[in-house]
Amino acid sequence: MTTLAKKIESIAKKAHLTAPTAAKLATETKNQILEGIAAALLTRQDEIIKANQKDIRAATKNKMTTAMIDRLILDAKRIQAMAHELREVKTLPDPVGEIVKRWTRPNGLEVSRVRIPLGVIGIIYESRPNVTIDAACLCLKSGNVVVLRGGSEAIHSNIFLVKLIRDVLKSQGIDQDIVQILPMTDRKAMGCLVKQSAFIDLMIPRGGESLMKWMEEHSRIPVVKHDKGVCHVYVDESAQVTMAEKIAYNAKVQRPGVCNAMETLLVHEKIAPVFLPSMIQKYKEAGVEVRGDEKARKIGPSIKKATKKDWATEYLDLIVSIRVVSSVDEAIRHIQKYGSTHTESIVTENPKNAEEFLNRLDSSVVLWNASTRFNDGGQLGLGAEIGISTTKLHAFGPMGLEELTTTKFVVKGRGQIRE
Amino acid sequence: MTTLAKKIESIAKKAHLTAPTAAKLATETKNQILEGIAAALLTRQDEIIKANQKDIRAATKNKMTTAMIDRLILDAKRIQAMAHELREVKTLPDPVGEIVKRWTRPNGLEVSRVRIPLGVIGIIYESRPNVTIDAACLCLKSGNVVVLRGGSEAIHSNIFLVKLIRDVLKSQGIDQDIVQILPMTDRKAMGCLVKQSAFIDLMIPRGGESLMKWMEEHSRIPVVKHDKGVCHVYVDESAQVTMAEKIAYNAKVQRPGVCNAMETLLVHEKIAPVFLPSMIQKYKEAGVEVRGDEKARKIGPSIKKATKKDWATEYLDLIVSIRVVSSVDEAIRHIQKYGSTHTESIVTENPKNAEEFLNRLDSSVVLWNASTRFNDGGQLGLGAEIGISTTKLHAFGPMGLEELTTTKFVVKGRGQIRE
Asked: Is the pLDDT reported for residue A49 higher than 80?
C-alpha cells in the first residue's frame, strides 16, 4: 500500500470506529454542538476570512473567472448566513430513533422499524466553502460521521472550517473524528477514498457530469449522485397565459446556474401563437438566448435553431430551447426521451392533462402550475438539504435529515422460535 | 463493441424502454398476470419438470453433491408451492401510487410523496430455480421491469420458466420484455450486464461472498447486496434458561444453511455454568460441532477451541462457536467487532439490558427473546421478500414490495414562483 493509500485508509477507519458514538449522541448534545459551531463561526469570523483570503489570492493568481471567485468568497454576511442555517438545522426534529411503523405478528412478535443513521458518509463537493459547514452539520444532526473532500480552490477555507468544528467538538468532550476532511484534493486521493467500502457506507458526489462519470467508474462504495437537471416546463393548451409566462420566466431566469432551473420549454401548438411572442420578448429583455424547433421559429423568426443536442443539454446558463408540441402525450414523450428525471412542471387549467403529466412522468419532482425552482429541500419543507439526489435508490429528489438515515427492525418476543 | 456486449446492451435497452409501461400497469392487470402465471405453472407442470430434468442430468454428470442437486429439483410439490406463493403476492397491496405523506407549504403549495417503481432491476442469483418465479413476480407487482441472471446449473429450468411467464404476458397483450433472462450465465456476460447503468437502475446480487466482492468491483449500477450473516444470540445473566435453550437451539439447528441462522452464541459468565452444559449436550445430540473460548471450554471441556477466525465466519453449517462474556457491554462490543450487521438476538428478563442491546446494535434486525430465524420478510409481515439486504442504503433487512419502490414528490400549485 502507498503512503497516500495508508493515510486515507486511516482516516476512513477512524471515521468507522467513531460511528457508534455519533449514532448514539443525544438530541440535546447534537443541538449544543450545532449551537457551538454557530457561535464559533461568528466569534472567529476574522480567522475564517483570513483563511479564505488565501484561496481568493490563489484563485486570482490562477485567473479564475469573477463568477467562480464570487462562489469562493466568505464575508461577514455569508458567515452570518451559515450560522443562521445551523440554527435552523438545530430546530429540526432529530430523525434518529423515530419509530416509523409498528405492528404485531399473529405469533405475538412486536415489530417496529426504527430510524438509525447510515454510518459514515463521504461527501465530494466543489467550490463553495459553506457546503463544508452545511454538509458536516446535516450529517452530525442525523447521527452520521462525515469525511469531507472539498475542491482544491477552497482548500484553505475548508480546512479552517473543519478545524473550527473539531475545536467545538473537543471543547464539548466529543470525539473529533466525527468530522474529518481530506487534506489532499486530487483524484488520486479520491481514488483511495472511494475504495474504503469496509469503512464508509455512502458517497455523495455533488458536481458536474465528469465527476459523476468518474464516481460511477471508480467507487466501490454505494453512491447517491447529485447529477444534472435537464428540467422542463410544459405550457398546455389550456394554460393561463400570464401564469405560464411567470412560471417559464422564473424557472429560467431567477437563478440559471442551478440544477432545478428549466432548460427546455415545451408549448402546445394551440397556445403557442398567443404565448410565445411575448414570452420570447421577455426572455430577450432578460438576456436569455432563445433557441427553438421549426414550429417555434415560425412564430419567433429571430430565434436560433435548436439541434437534437440542445434537447439533452443542461445549460446552467441564460439559454433556453423551445419546442412546440401537439399534445400532452408528445410533451411527456419528449421529456422521457431527453430529460434527466430531475424536475418537470406542467402549466394547465385542465386537471385531466395535469394528472396525466404528474402520473406518467417519474421525475424526482413533478409540478402542476408551479416553478421548477421549487425542487429544493427547504422550499418543499424538508427543513434543509444536503443536495438533490438523481439516483432512484435510497432517496430520490431533495435529501434532508431523514434521507441521511435508514431503518432497522426491532423485534420483541416472549421466547418465539421458528417452526 | 463485442457481439456479446451488443446483445446484453440490447436486452438492457429493451428493459429500459418497457419501464414506463410496467410502471403504469393497473393493479388489476398485474394481479391477472400473477394469476395467469400461477395457473400456467400448474397446467404446464410436465413441461417444467422436463426442462428441469436436463439440469438434473447435467448436475449428476458434473458430480454435484446431493444437497446441491436437491436445491435444483422442481417436482409437483415445489411447483404447487411456487403457484401458492404467487397467489399470496397477488393478495398483497400494490405499493405503486401510494401517497406516503402529504403536506401544505406556507405559500400554498401542496406537496405529496408518492411511491413509484425503481425502473429496471437486475437480479443475480444461483441454484434454486423457484427464485426465477419469485423475483420476476415481486418485480412485476411493484411495477418494475426485471432482467434475470440465474446460475448455469439451473439454466434450462430458468429459461423455460421465463418463457412461461412471457407466454402469459403475450396472451394478456402485455409487453413481454417486462421480464427477460440472460441466456448466458458466465461472468463475461455478467460483466457486460453490470455496465448498463444507462438502462438498469438497481442490481440485486444474491449469493456468496465471492459474488459480493465481484459485484463491488465491477458494477457501475447501484447495488443492494444480499450478503452473509454472522448472526449472534446473547444469553444474558438474567435469561430464562429454558427460553434461552429453545432460542439458541432454533437459531442454530432449524435451518443452518441460511443467512439468518446463528453462528456465534455469547453467554454471560454468571449463567454459563447453569446454561451451557445442557445446551452443549443438546447441540451434540443434533450433530452440531461446538467450538468455544477458554471460559466456555472450562465448562464444556469436550468442545474444540474457537479461533479468532471463527468469530467472523458464516458457517452455514452445523457448527457453533461459544464465547463467555462478563457483561452486555462486552457482548455488544464483540458483535460490533466481528458481526456483519445482519441479525442479533438477546435473551434476557432484564428490560434495561434488552434496551441497551436493541439500541446500541444497528444490525438490520435486532431481537429480544426471539430466534434470529425471524429475519425474513414473510415472518416479519412484509408479505413476501426478494431477499435480505445487508446494504444500509435504500433498504436494510428483508426487502418486500415497498422496498422495490422509491418515492417522487408531486407538487400542486396555483402559479407559485420562487422569489
From this structure: yes
Domain A231-379, classified CATH 1.20.5.110, yes or no: no
Neighbours of B214 (CB within 10 A): 18
In one-letter notation, the amino acid at residue A185 is T
B238 shares contact with chain A (CB less than 8 Å): no
A contact residues 127-186, partner B, Cβ 8 Å cutoff:
none
| Residue pair A401/A142 in contact by the 8 Å Cβ criterion | yes
Nearest to A401 by CA among A3, A128, A27, A49: A27
Neighbouring CB atoms inside 10 A of B287's CB total 9
H or E element at residue B13: helix B3-23
The interface predicted TM-score of the complex, written ipTM, equals 0.95
Cα gap A252→A372, rounded to integer Å: 9
Q: Touching check for A201 and chain B: CB below 8 Å?
A: yes
pLDDT at site B383: 86
Contact B27, B94 (CB under 8 A): yes
Distance from CA of A191 to the nearest CA of B (A): 13
Give the E-state strand segments of A275-404 in sequence order. 289-292, 304-305, 319-325, 343-347, 365-370, 387-389, 397-399
Torsions phi, psi for B265 (to 5 deg): -110, 120
A358/B contact by beta carbon, under 8 A: yes
Is B251:B263 a contact under the CB 8 Å cutoff?
no
- Chain A CB contacts of B250 below 8 Å: 417-418
Out of B246, B255, B408, whose CB is closest to A415? Answer: B246
Q: Could you read off the pLDDT of A5-22 as tens digits, one per residue?
A: 999 999 999 999 999 999
Tens digits of residue pLDDT in B108-129: 999 999 999 999 999 999 878 9
Contact A202, A222 (CB under 8 A): yes
Q: Per the CB < 8 Å rule, is B254 touching A411?
A: no
**Residues in chain A, overall count:** 419
- The rounded mean pLDDT for chain A is 96
**Is some CB atom of chain B closer than 8 A to the CB atom of A63?**
no
Contact partners, residue B323, CB within 8 Å, separation at least 6: B264, B265, B266, B267, B292, B293, B295, B296, B306, B311, B334
- Residue A66, pLDDT > 90, answer no
Using CA coordinates, name the residue in chain B closest to A106.
Answer: B381
Please give the distance of CA B88 from its chain centroid, rounded to a whole number. 18
Structural domain spans, chain B: 3-227+393-410, 231-379
Domain A3-227+393-410 belongs to what topology?
Aldehyde Dehydrogenase; Chain A, domain 1 (3.40.605)
* A216: chain B residues, CB-CB within 8 Å: 197, 220
Please list the residues that pair with B264 across neighbouring strands.
B232, B321
Give the whole-angstrom CA distance, residue B46 versus residue B50: 6
> What pTM, to 2 d.p., does this model score?
0.94
Instruction: Identify which of B248, B184, B201 has the alpha carbon closest to the alpha carbon of residue B22.
Output: B201
Q: Specify the amino acid at residue B110.
A: E
The C-alpha cell of A313 is what? 443539454
CA dist., res. B201 & res. B258, Å (int): 28
Would an 8 Å CB–CB cutoff place B277 in contact with chain A? no
CB half-sphere exposure, B233, CA atoms < 13 A: 31
B1 in contact with chain A, both atoms CB, cutoff 8 A: no
Residue A134 pLDDT: 93
A/B interface, count of CB pairs below 8 Å: 205
Measured CA to CA, the distance from residue B373 to residue A23 in angstroms comes to 26
Reported as type and span, the H/E element at residue B293 is: none
